[in-house]
Amino acid sequence: MEESSSTATTESVGLGFNKRRAEGKDKNDGPKKNLQLKVRKLNPVNTISYVQILGTGMDTQDTAPSVLLFFDKQRFIFNAGEGLQRFCTEHKIKLSKIDHIFLSRVCSETAGGLPGLLLTLAAMGDEGMSVNIWGPSDLKYLVNAMKSFIPNAAMVHARSFSDDLFVPIDDEVVKISAVLLRPRYSKVCDDTTKEGSSEFALKPGDVSVVYICELPEIKGKFDPKKAAALGLRPGPKYRELQLGNSVQSDRQDIMVHPSDVLGPSVPGPIVLIVDCPTVSHLHELSFVHSLTPYYSYPSEHSKEMCKKVDCVIHLSPASVTRTSEYQQWMSRFGEAQHVMAGHQPKNVEIPILKSSARIATRLNYLCPQFFPSPGFWSLPQLKSLPLVSKAPSEFSLPSSCEVITAENLLKFCLRPLAQLGLDRSGIPEITSRPKIIEDLISEIPEIVDASEHITQLLHGNSIANGGSTTLQANNATTEEPWLHETALPSCLEGITREDMEIVLLGTGSSQPSKYRNVTSIFINLFSKGSILLDCGEGTLGQLKRRFGIEGADEAVKGLRCIWISHIHADHHTGLARILARRRDLLNGTPHELLLVVGPRQLKTYLDAYQKLEDLDMQFLDCRHTTEASLKNFESSENKDVNGSGCVQNDQKNDSNLFAKGSRMESHWKRPGSPVDASSAFPLLTTLKKILKEAGLEALISFPVVHCPQAYGVVLKAADRNGKKIPGWKIVYSGDTRPCPELVEASRGATVLIHEATFEDGMVEEAIARNHSTTQEAIEVGDSAGAYRIILTHFSQRYPKIPVFDETHMHKTSIAFDMMSVNLADLPMLPRVLPYLKLLFRDEMIVDESEDVNVAAAAI
Ligand SMILES: [Zn+2]
Ligand SMILES: [Zn+2]
């Protein structure tokens, strides 16, 4: 139980940790063998070490980049924003080798990837793994919140500090010190301060940290001639001197000191990682005492006392780094190399996740209607992206200051000493759309015809382009009789391209992978706003990839409601980031709290999380949005009576469905704990209003068979044209086994979005994990008479395209990340499938590699 929240305990843990390390070095203590080992490890000359920018969020600008501090035997990562795990998979950085994660602040921007990371590590190997997490004292709020869905064992190594200067790591390889920065609202007038400059009290999440990483000095060479001249005989005393201890001369009556026989030692490199998030922190940064030894004072005689800093990595945003006060502070480091790693617009067009960008681009070439151009290509291309980034022009620093803009995987080499300095060899080549298309055409020449064929099909047949008459005419000539099987549902009559679009932002299960992010479905209602169904880690980043940087912000601002199916991490760990982004975007403009509808355990998490940062939301339990609950609400709204009956009804429903004795049962259903349904009535009134404004008639949750408090959802649009045309109906299964409630809810659905975690041959696996197979999902849709079925939530075993049997897919499509299905194109959706098979013809293989091992993870 090493986790601690108070300073006192934290300190003792920290000191204990350091002491243990120190004991290994103590020559009077411990077995000789260990000592030998330590001495050998001590020799830093043979070590390879560097700091490297991990560019998570550099292209999407939604999350802080991370910094890797690499040693042969130890790895440290600073910050763990959303997408870090996916980034590491893409760039082959082994998560299992990371020993320590440091947070420069505690908020969704810097720590959004932590929950998913901890769960993945906990599922690794036989025993599971854990990692040391360090951060300012606000870390305790995050840890408390994560306890609602992460096993405590995965977080026992979370430790926080609240002293102004704290040393978490001090061993033979590196010393890492943390310097706390507290904002000064009282002294600095900051426009971005939420409640104005009158605020004095620190809020959680306000403290940021400067990390100082110091490598040990390299001792000078031992000179045997000098030793002999001072009367020493070769032997153990030579070694003592090399270890830094003075010894008695053998032949003379003098003490011999290390400096007498050793050449000049070379100081170890020093790297600073600086996060100064607001101008309010800047004053503290400029005056904090702990940094004084690291400034260079060329003219003063105290020069020898100064520690020379080799590299400063700035995570601070441009709004801070552009100020003259910040630049003055930067110039105090003399000749240090400055790396500006805050968000830079020039990085927006360089996709960090090249593999998924490549697939998105290929899909877009084949079928732009269902796979619109990704956000990073749709911007006007900057013709002259400089290969070598120079100092941003806004810097007016002395010429001795070396300043460059960070790029993904840029390194600053620390050891060996001869290579000290920048290393660009790891920076990936820029991926361009034309190059990806060129490769595709040379690999699959038939794709050119296929693409043209699809364009003709879709242009002739989109309802919005001329309606169902062309559909009929074309059918006669294409000899594909299956299209006749399902007549166009009346709800699609006269539909426009501005009615509704389903954007599959994440289509993988369990953990984010190279090609598929975790679950999130964006229901785009265009001028009427939008709704998110589930919100896995990286949902904001995926929105940015789909709509572009600004488009995604507009989408976030337009959110009417977020609905979460169940408490598994692959469905909601992106929620805090989205809510925080919305809060910041709407700051200063009048707006409503965003309604989050979700399982009860999610409320526990959000309540705890909001002690760290306010998410500007209100919570409605899914169980108050079941059909029975809603009926009860409607009738009580009419009769103005208490609605306790609905809870009875609802609970009965739940208890039939959820397995007894489940581990999580006690969290949500304590015997006799009263559920106050009437307290939900104001929220249900809000929901009703929101739906009306969005042109929707209903949002109904229904219980499914997966884990306690797991739900599916029905979204129904209001009738159109004076009620002559019925509204469309979307059903999303959440994670589930096929069950009668799902079939019942899906009756007559226009689109059923159904999970299909496993291929048909894996029924047993599907039963064991409470998921569905492809065929089971299709059967649910068929028996419910759904017009179209979209399969999603694929096991990460299927890296690019899942295994499926085409013969049963006449009304079905499989989902890909970023696939966007406009209601107007719905009739043609299944016809695209054979072409997708062509695109992936060489890649329909199962990936059994270790990094997609999901054995122990809850999905
Ligand atoms: Zn899942
Ligand atoms: Zn699940």
From TrEMBL:
| Gene3D superfamilies noted in UniProt | Ribonuclease Z/Hydroxyacylglutathione hydrolase-like
Any single GO CC term annotated in Swiss-Prot or TrEMBL for this entry = mitochondrion
Enzyme type, top EC level: hydrolase
Principal localisation: mitochondrion
Give UniProt keywords alphabetically: Calcium, Endonuclease, Hydrolase, Magnesium, Manganese, Metal-binding, Mitochondrion, Nuclease, Transit peptide, tRNA processing, Zinc
Composition bias type Basic and acidic residues, residue spans: 20-32
Q: GO: which molecular function terms?
A: 3'-tRNA processing endoribonuclease activity; metal ion binding
Where is the protein found, in the record's own terms? Mitochondrion
Low complexity: which segments have biased composition?
1-12
According to UniProt, the reaction catalysed is: Endonucleolytic cleavage of RNA, removing extra 3' nucleotides from tRNA precursor, generating 3' termini of tRNAs. A 3'-hydroxy group is left at the tRNA terminus and a 5'-phosphoryl group is left at the trailer molecule
Q: Where are the transmembrane segments?
A: none
Per UniProt, residues of the tRNase Z endonuclease domain are: 57-113
Biological process GO annotation list? mitochondrial tRNA 3'-end processing
Positions of region (Disordered): 1-34
- In short, the EC number is 3.1.26.11
Q: Which cofactor does it need?
A: Zn(2+); Mn(2+); Mg(2+)
Asked if the keyword Zinc belongs to this entry, the reply reads yes
Asked if the record carries the keyword Manganese, the reply is: yes
Coiled-coil portions: none
HAMAP family for this protein: RNase_Z_BN (MF_01818)
Q: Describe the family membership recorded for this protein in Swiss-Prot or TrEMBL.
A: Belongs to the RNase Z family.
Q: How does it assemble?
A: Homodimer.
Name by which UniProt lists this protein: ribonuclease Z
Name its species: Anisodus acutangulus
